[in-house]
Amino acid sequence: MLRRTLMTTAAAGLGLAILGGSAALAQDKTKACFVYVGTIGDGGWTQAHHTAVMKAQEHFGDAVEFQWQESVPEGADSERVMTQMALGGCNIIFTTSFGYMDPTNAIAAKFPNVKFEHATGFKREHPNVGIYNARFYEGRAIEGLIAGRMTQTNKIGYIASFPIPEVIMGINSYFLNAKKVNPDVELSVVWAYTWFDPGKEADAAKALMDAGVDVIAAHTDSTAALAEISKAGGKVIGFGQASDMAEYKPSPRVTSIIDDWSPYYIRQIQAVIDGNWTSEDTWDGIAQGTVGIGEFTGLPDEVTKEAEALRDAIAAGSYHPFTGPINKQDGSAWLAEGQTAPDGDLLGMNFFVEGITGEIPQ
Amino acid sequence: MDFGGINPVILVASLMVAAVPIMLAALGELVVEKAGVLNLGVEGMMIVGAISGFIAAVATGSPVVGFLAGAAGGAVLSLVFAFLTQVVLANQVATGLALTMFGLGLSSLMGQGYNGIKPPLTGKVPFGPLADIPVLGPILFAHDWMVYASIALVAGVWWVLRATRLGLIIRAVGESHDAAHALGYKVNRIRLMCIAFGGAMAGLGGAYVSLVRVPQWVDGMTAGAGWIALAIVVFASWRPWRVLIGAYLFGGISVLQLSLQAGGSAIPVEYLSMSPYLVTIVVLVIMSSGRGRASLNAPAALGQNFHAAR
Amino acid sequence: MLRLEKRPNPSKFWQYGTPVVAVALTMIVGGILFAFMGKNPVEVIRTIFWDPIFGEFAFYLRGQLLVKAGPLILIAIGLSLGFRAGIWNIGAEGQYIMGAICGAAVGLAVYPTESRLIFPAMVIAGALGGWAWAMIPAILKTRFNTNEILVSLMLVYVAQTILAKASTGFLKNPEGMGFPGSRNFSSFPAAANPELIAGTGIHWGVIAAFLVAIVGWVILSRHIIGFQIKLSGQAPRAARFHGVNPSRLVVLCMGVSGGLAGLAGLFEVTGPAGQISIDFNVGYGFTAIIVAFLGRLNPIGIVFAGILMALTYVGGEMAATNLGLPAAAIQVFQGMLLFFLLGVDVLTNFRIRTAILGVK
């Protein structure tokens, strides 16, 4: 029995490896595949990825074949989808949600000839796995500056999704850069505990406005918050999130953080075509175009100029949104004068900076 | 008038808006259940109503047409359920769940190409100076017309069920379909019409989400409102005015927990977000304890299919 | 005019014939839908129904069918007992989540101890977690006559909130750089539920599903409890005369379905899913309700229904990836399949007669 089991194991393992290999060799056209967590029409995260894929498809034309799968649950289902893609001859597979981290590494081990790219995670356990993310906190800094300058009530708000480093980083960057130009500013954070629930997002925006907040940034994906803000009759402003949300121009949407993964996708697929793809940990920002800053609209000229200058300084690398001295919320020192935050600190961020009054739900 | 950083007037005014979709859907489901049918497909009918209404409103530029189309969309989908459960006598629980799955997929297909479009604005009812009355103004006189329409619908359903012959027939069918049949009523036809009404109301609620609450189209945008509507029906023990109270309570708690956070209260979020469900359970227990099924007002034939032997 | 006439006994022929008719009808109507969307209907239907079992990659996908069907079958069999007795537990999703959390918590509490006892202890904790969560509506029902449909449904949302809390709080991986999600069980062998035979997809959950199907069949057809369950569903009054205690039956049926849902959650979290995360549950608890009915509340039928359901997921995914169909089209197709399966069942219990006009 044991012997039999062992033999089937070997046979099956071999089958996978050989098929994976031959499928990759058999074709001359490069195939790039994408695993999406939401639907293409979610208006946020997945839509941004798919828009980038469409741009890449335009860029490569017939040279590259593209495939994607929508609404793939994290966990066992994603492993199956990735395996199907690898078996089906994909040369590079992009997995576009944090929850795909362990599955991506597990499947990558079985298909050493296929390249895997995992978004927003931190594990690279195999030489054929790369990871990529965007420095969205750079965009938050610009939103923070605008918030600090534009608020009349000195109350600014943030609709947060889940208490994870990505979100906490955004909150801190937003607050620090608002505080820099307006020391009296106070921040209210509302945890919606969802990435996507338009009704709740609208309610959250309304709750913030009712509490006197007049600049609202959102870390949730739909335009519901902006729609709610627009009912305030110009007294409150907000920002586009994930996409430009241009339909709310010129106000209440005064600028936006646009997720634009296309430069990265084009670069990595090209590397596969050229045969010089290597496993990297990429964290691109405004400079590389991954974090796009939407047109500034409906702002006074001097604020627009200041925001543009900040954007350019971040892109040029002359300004880092987390530059010391910065203390943690409990008053303990984090960054010394002039010191900038190491990437490791940011990626694992689990504390608010000094001056934020709320608490992070632990 | 501030309690813990929250202005109760604004809170009430916003919960009235937040409650409209679940109130409409629950009201429809109440009629369906009164007729003895359990349709768990509310979420599916809502989302199809949301996209139908959105498409129609964008195409015609008229929110009114949008709401009508939303109701029609929900009703048409509910007819699938009605056919399966009333004509070929399929199980109601399973068919309802399948309806939700189908509706979510269908709405997403219909909605392709409608992302990122703004629908025409649903206007507020002009009450003029009335809206400026302190306290009462923002609560009573500062809403869009659907808020008032939904309350009127509650009153209408209450009146029909309580005081009309039609209401009597619906209740008879829900209490004992055999007796109703013996009296000469066409049980399945009556139920079919109730199901269509339920679908229309769910569709109307969905259209309110896509045309007023959010207002735009995104996949899966009703985000579970249909399930909450189902809860409210039982919470209300099948009484229309209690549906209104239940919807306000549900809408109220979800608005309140966000307002408390915005106001800076250090209340653990996760307990607040589960509180509406816990409150519903507690209320259910209180209402049903010790007094038996009759006091719960549940239709006796709920969930049972009827086939006329002759 | 067509009318239905109740058969004295369910038709044996149609009992087996209806699923075939339903699948055929779905293929035709679904094919029209796919053709309307500009795809080759034959190719799409082949990709969904044929390729996962006999296609090029069937050696891998057949196992995946079992992985997908396992939890569905396990939960659906538990639910079917209650459904037969008229006890409506529609909160299996919550019990599934709680089973996963309790089981995982036991395992993670002793990390990184290596002992043969850990996994069995987790299995027990998982079943208990699901059982306890189902006991809430069960006891509220027996003590206060509270509607179990609603309470069990409400508890799904409560469980989801607890899940979010677990993955961002008390079960969070201490080495996860602050990201949500527990440790991955694949790196904790004593607590893991791996593929038992490589390439087949079979893990303990799949084995449990088939065992439970057999046990369920025996209980329903041979055991007094099975008789009591069936009697309570068909004739509650008669059941009382036969000495069936309705409260005990509620506690039993809810407990069994909750426990099995909890088991399914535990096997899933330690095996295919690998870890507790915010979105760890993917709706098996709800889909299982449909599976239970598709299987005609019969354990053997449920096994086939679970595999058919898994086929539409796995095959549907392939159609979406390879042929560029939107995921929504697959969802619509699945919905249609369910409608047809539920609808044509009428032929089992009824004859269709053409009535002469004017005669009723």
TrEMBL record, chain A:
This is BMP family ABC transporter substrate-binding protein. It holds the Pfam family Bmp. InterPro entries: ABC-Purine-Binding (IPR052910), PnrA-like (IPR003760). PANTHER family: ABC TRANSPORTER SUBSTRATE-BINDING PROTEIN (PTHR43208:SF1). The keyword Calcium does not apply. The keyword Disulfide bond does not apply. CDD domains: PBP1_BMP-like. Residues 1-26 form the signal peptide.
From TrEMBL, chain B:
InterPro entries: ABC_transp_permease. It is a multi-pass membrane protein. CDD domains: TM_PBP1_transp_TpRbsC_like. It is found in: Cell membrane. The keyword Membrane applies. Its main location: membrane. It holds the Pfam family BPD_transp_2. Keywords: Cell membrane, Membrane, Transmembrane, Transmembrane helix. The chain crosses the membrane at residues 6-28, 40-59, 65-84, 96-115, 135-161, 192-211, 217-236, 243-260, 266-287. This is ABC transporter permease.
TrEMBL record, chain C:
The keyword Glycoprotein does not apply. It comes from the Bacteria. It is a multi-pass membrane protein. Keywords: Cell membrane, Membrane, Transmembrane, Transmembrane helix. InterPro entries: ABC_transp_permease (IPR001851). Its main location: membrane. PANTHER family: ABC TRANSPORTER, PERMEASE PROTEIN, GUANOSINE ABC TRANSPORTER PERMEASE PROTEIN NUPP. This is ABC transporter permease. It comes from Albidovulum sediminis.
